[in-house]
From TrEMBL:
Organism from which the protein derives: Oceanirhabdus seepicola
Sorted UniProt keywords: Isoprene biosynthesis, Magnesium, Metal-binding, Thiamine biosynthesis, Thiamine pyrophosphate, Transferase
Name of the protein in question: 1-deoxy-D-xylulose-5-phosphate synthase
Residues noted as binding Mg(2+) in the record, renumbered to the chain: D146, N175
Known function: Catalyzes the acyloin condensation reaction between C atoms 2 and 3 of pyruvate and glyceraldehyde 3-phosphate to yield 1-deoxy-D-xylulose-5-phosphate (DXP).
Amino acid sequence: MYNIFNKVNSFKDIKSLDYNELDLLSMEIRKFLIENISKTGGHLASNLGVVELTLSLYRVFDLDYDKVIWDVSHQAYVHKILTGRKDKFPTLRQHQGLSGFLKRSESKYDFFEAGHSSTSISAGIGMARARDINKEKFNVVSIIGDGALSGGMAFEALNDVGFRKTKMIIILNDNEMSISKNVGSMSNILNDLRVNPNYNKIKRKVKSSIGKIPHVGKKISDSIVNVKSAVKQVVLPDMIFEDMGLHYFGPIDGHNIKHLEEILEDAKKLDGPVLIHVITKKGKGYKPAENNPDKFHGIGKFDVVTGETLKKTSPTYSAAVGDALIDIAKEDEKVVAITAAMPKGTGLGEFSTKFEDRFFDVGIAEQHATTMAAGMASEGLKPFFAVYSTFLQRAFDQILHDICLQNLPVVLGIDRAGIVGDDGETHQGVFDISYLTQIPNITVIAPKKIGEMNKILRWAFNHNGPVAIRYPRGGDYDRINEIDDIDVIKEGKWEIIKEGTDVAIISNGKLISKVLEAWEILKKNGINASVINGIFIKPIDNMLLDELKDKFKVIVTIEDNVLRGGFGESVLSYLNKTDSNSKILNLGFPDEFIEHGNVEILYEKYNLHGQGIVDSIERVLR
Ligand SMILES: Cc1ncc(C[n+]2csc(CCOP(=O)(O)OP(=O)(O)O)c2C)c(N)n1
Ligand SMILES: CC(=O)[C@@H](O)[C@H](O)COP(=O)(O)O
Ligand SMILES: [Mg+2]
């Protein structure tokens, strides 16, 4: 089935191949990726786009010596194949299987881990400077996408590397796509560069003809500069990378291995930072992905022939947020929506077309989005920033310093709160309760079911101060439909779902379903539990806690967050200040990073499934 691919297990095996064999290998790698990812799910389109780029890099550079850093690292599957992990590919993103991202524990060739974007240039600069101080000689190559280049850290790193002239190579992998269409003025500049490839040709001609003039004097060299800038003025209004102090090569066809290799060899010889602008096609070689790169950016299992996803779609929290927001925005023209490059993932797709002027995709710029929201709120707008819990970690200071310090009414829609599953450590949303609740002025709230989203969002927009609404990836468990939506939302007031006598269980969000599962088992075991929806994670319901402590010997908190600084600790800390004699049991995630794997497997592993909750409670009651 595979001719060349079967013989390739390592980057060492590709060095001796000729260009025809490399073309065949590229096709076979694509076939392998499509077949495997159709069964496991994963980041298909980005990987299909970097096949030739990865092969070229690994022929020119020596991974036993040189360092290659992949930004985000969702596009590093070909790297995994070429670094001895081909056979493990069917386990991709499965619990205990290969990670979907780079992992230093997986391979000595995974030089730097990522999952969040725009870190590769900074990491590369760090390695290059360590190399220089340690008097070593290896090459450093950072590969960053055009989407990731919209992130502030990437600009900070370019600003630094161009100034200090650190020797390294930056490959800008430009496929005109972030997850959705790339946005921003840098994206426009890249487009200019793409459609004006003449600039480099003319520059090379000018340089080579001047190189032929013997003993170039100051006058002539001045005129070179003038010619260069004249060329720039005519061909391009601004050559941003060269002006920042980097050598620029491009645009280069990222699917032409021979040409890529020539450029990489040239770049290797140069001192100082080099940026190679490579043009690739996201989804290359698989029509459904080429035609629909955002759908195939990160996809679940799919049918290879039709490209259709196999899992039936069911209502999600993100979609409910999008619908509710449209509803509210129709009534209130002050409502605006913001995303940091995740319009579809956060459910804002329809909003973006219905309210074009009131929708802002700022690129992968969570910090900017947060402070911009604060600015909008200071002028009377009602901003809603929908953002994944894990990516909002970037904007901690902006939430604190720009929103909360000024008590500005920004609504943060914290999507993917709690564990997300297959993406693993870098993406689990298990820190937001801890990082948010320590900030004064903010209110943190969580719906227990999708149906409550509209009501909660309306409450948040009417609240005079910052509000964070946390909700999970995906949708509800069926069990939650056994209970009603919350009736009235009152700040700091919890909802009693079941009245019991033996133990009080307080939880919030999606985990309420798991608590209901536990409640049923406990009942069968003769234990009568109260179940409380701690819908307000901050402020907590002190009055109800006062009643619970007098009534129950055991109070249990359960959260989809790390225990440190979490909901349970807030409850514990309050009860510690009272005369409570109740025993408090806090359930949640321990002080460690939560690996990748199916969400249900992970809940079970950490005893947050029905039986796990029961076991923990029975242990304490005994
Ligand atoms: C800080 C942060 N915000 C958002 C994301 C979600 N995200 C993952 S990949 C991606 C798009 C990256 O685009 P690009 O760098 O061009 O890579 P491509 O997939 O096009 O190869 C985004 C927005 C992230 N990983 N990190
Ligand atoms: C690499 C990355 O950060 C995103 O592509 C992420 O994997 C998307 O996750 P969702 O599938 O939850 O939108
Ligand atoms: Mg891209």
